[in-house]
Amino acid sequence: MTAELVRGQNHPLSQVRLEVRVSAGKPIVAGATLSDEQGKVRGVEWVAHPGAPTLPGLEVSKQAAADHRLAFDLDALPETVHRVSVLLALPSGAGGPVRFGSVAAPFIAVTGLDGSEVASYTITGLDAESAVVALELYRRQGAWKVRAVGQGYAGGLAELLTDQGLPEAQQLAGSINDAVAQGLARSVAAPPPRTPDGDRSRQAATSAPGPDQPYGGPQGASGTVPPQQSPYDVPSPQGAPAPQAGYPGGSAQPDPSAVTQPSTPAGGGIDYSHPGRQTGAPPPPPPTAPPAQPGQPAQPVAGDATGWSMEERLYNQVWGMFEDLARTTAAYRSAVDFADSRMEQELDKVLSDPRSRIGGQGDAARDAARAKHADLVDQARAALDRDLAQLTAEAEVVEPALPPAFARWDNPVWHGYRVPMEIPMALRLGDLHLPESEGLSIPMLVRLPLERGLWIDSGRATLDDSLADSDELRRLAMDTAVAQAARLLAVYPAGEFTVHVIDPAGSGASSLVPLVQSGALDGAPAAGATGVADVLARLTQRVDLVQMAVRGGAADSLPPGFDTAEQLLIVNDFPHGFDDRAVTQLRYLADEGPAVGVHLMMVADREDASAYGPLLDPLWRSLLRITPVPDDHLADPWVGHAWTFEPALVPLGSQVLQQVLAQVAAARRPWNR
Question: Out of 307, 380, 572, 584, which could bridge 312 as a Cys pair, Cβ 3.0 to 4.6 Å?
């Protein structure tokens, strides 16, 4: 059965010798780029285009045409190639259309050599773009997949190639346009449309009606997710002899009946790219999964991502899972939205015609519209369930392999905990999931050192109305702060992280017991107005001293005995016990502290702090809000999903926190002498 993809959706490939067939209403240019593990095109020799149509493992058309066949042998690609992007562009200076918004939506199909269709995709939602990444074939867990991309570029081929990391993008775009201009006279005209009884045709699909899809990526660049970045892809991914003449499909003429046309549209493009290492020796290869059987998904493997260490590979894999969950959920929602829109249009058409409004004809039309809607939704749900099952299997493998900084408190890795010698690259704040994936949670990781402070909201919960007791919420918020502080102490080397606590009224005493009794705190929690002023004055002075030393280029001139460790200040029950001066100092620490190793963790109710009016707005906006109970307040900038956040709390009755903090305190003693 053919997989009719929407933008962002992927599909496994059960064969490696394929054709990608392109159908458009006007002559267009088709090409392909090869990318390494970091998603970078290493040079012009990794680009197949009309001027150089053959590369190891692939062949593209030699001229602009309304229809193309691109041939691929994925096993013949160089081992350093991890992604193949199929590119489409409008010919430059040929007197034809200059933007895809003025032509029929291009239709793409991936087929076997026998013409059997594997997946298809209609690129809708294009407007001012003159070049587009149509789809990509990529390696994932030892197997190949195809992903519908549809990311357009208003700057044409030059902008597209630049975005793929090619330094010679401008020159190559010019040479491609020159080659196209020389062969434009040989362009193949669009085939005539099929007769109505042909049902589905290979001709280019017109833009289907319906609402815009949730995907709204930028033209040529993407937003980021904490540090998502990008989500999600993971922080960015990175020869064989040339094929012989007569490579299958290389010069065959298009077959108008061989490709089917999808009925589900999609919206704008997204680029889930992440910053990756660009210099130095290549990273060690990740572990590989056993080869997948044809038609079966590959078995997941922990650390099956790019990276210089297992920790970095696991970090990248986690955000790869985040990306996949975001994409498949967006594809499902897009398909459901389209099904709803089409059913409404068909029902409106029935109701607008008095002849079919009543009677058997009208009932039959309504039943048919609802049946089509149910069928589309069922297909979308089946695709979502398939992807969720694969992600769940991957999560079950990845979770037990996570290091302490990434692991839940119930992970057995904590039973073998030892104080580390190096700072980890990231920290787990909690878990993220979507309404469609209640059984699947993705760890929420933030990079270290922290780039912004945390506001742990002790206010009214939005998802769990049973927690209406404000005192209980405040206690849970402080428990969350202690758990996060304990994790930070545990994952930093001995003596390289210090925690201070301000608890003006002592309301957080019960939650602070593990930190106080273990001796992991720098001192007793500060209470009363005097204690608040003293701690804030010391940390403010510290920020001033370090800033002056750094700006003056004399970092070694700090006072003797100066604590160079990262500092964390936990403030409980804010704004109780704070005057205007203290609030100003907090804002200063939030703004200037992270750059010099001073971090802020506020435990407060936003409504309680509203009495200060706009004075606190900059402080509120500068901190990352998390909650002590599940809440759907986090949104990614790629597709706008509202992600439900669940904090990483210690299981009830567990002593793991006390055991870990005891080791931290014991390791800190030699440093404090």
Answer: 307
Beta bridge partners of 426: 447
- Supply the pLDDT for residue 611: 64
The helix/strand/coil state of 22 is strand
Torsion angle defined by CA atoms of residues 223, 391, 152 and 21, in that order, rounded to the nearest 10 degrees: 170
188 class by beta-carbon count within 10 Å (0-12 exposed, 13-18 middle, 19+ buried):
middle
pLDDT tens readout for residues 589-615 = 988 999 889 999 999 887 776 666 666
List Cα–Cα distances, 155 to 103, 129, 180, 283, 510, in angstroms.
17, 7, 18, 33, 60
Angle among Cα 122, 94, 182 to the nearest 5 degrees reads: 105
Nearest Cα residue to 410 out of 178, 637, 654 = 654
Supply the DSSP symbol for 37: T
Q: What are the beta bridge partners of residue 109? A: 21, 120
Place of tokens 């309404």: 435
Six token digits for residue 468: 């209406």
Tell me what pLDDT residue 410 has: 92
Query: Would you say the pTM of this structure is higher than 0.85?
Result: no
Provide the token pair at 315: 């970090």
- Per residue in 527-582, pLDDT (tens digit) is 888 888 999 999 999 998 888 887 777 766 777 777 788 999 999 988 777 888 88
Identity at 373, one-letter amino acid code: H
pLDDT digits (tens, 9 = 90+) for 198-243: 333 333 333 333 333 333 332 332 333 343 333 333 333 333 333 3
The per-residue pLDDT for range 470-485, each reduced to its tens digit, is: 788 889 999 999 999 9
> How far, in Å, CA of 564 to CA of 178, rounded?
60
What mean pLDDT comes out for the span 333-339?
89
Smallest CA-to-CA distance from 150 within 109, 91, 106, 211 is with 106
Under a CB-based contact definition with an 8 Å cutoff, are residues 267 and 215 in contact? yes
pLDDT reported for residue 104 = 85
Name the pairing type of β-strands 3-4 and 143-153: unpaired
> Could you tell me how many helices (H) and strands (E) the chain has, helices first?
12, 21
To which residue do tokens 């001139």 refer? 557
Q: How far apart are CA 457 and CA 349, in angstroms?
A: 50
Neighbouring residues of 251: CB distance < 8 A, sequence distance ≥ 6? none
d(CA 658, CA 248): 66
Query: What pLDDT does residue 289 have?
Result: 54
Give which of 479, 504, 461 is closest to 607, Cα–Cα: 461
The type of residue at 633 is H
List, as own/partner pairs, every contact residues 421-428 make where C-beta atoms lie below 8 angstroms and the sequence separation is at least 24, other chains included: 421/493, 422/493, 423/448, 423/449, 423/491, 423/492, 423/493, 423/496, 424/311, 424/448, 424/491, 425/311, 425/312, 425/315, 426/227, 426/315, 427/487, 427/488, 427/491, 428/402, 428/487, 428/648
Rounded average pLDDT over 72-100: 87
> What pLDDT is attached to residue 208?
32
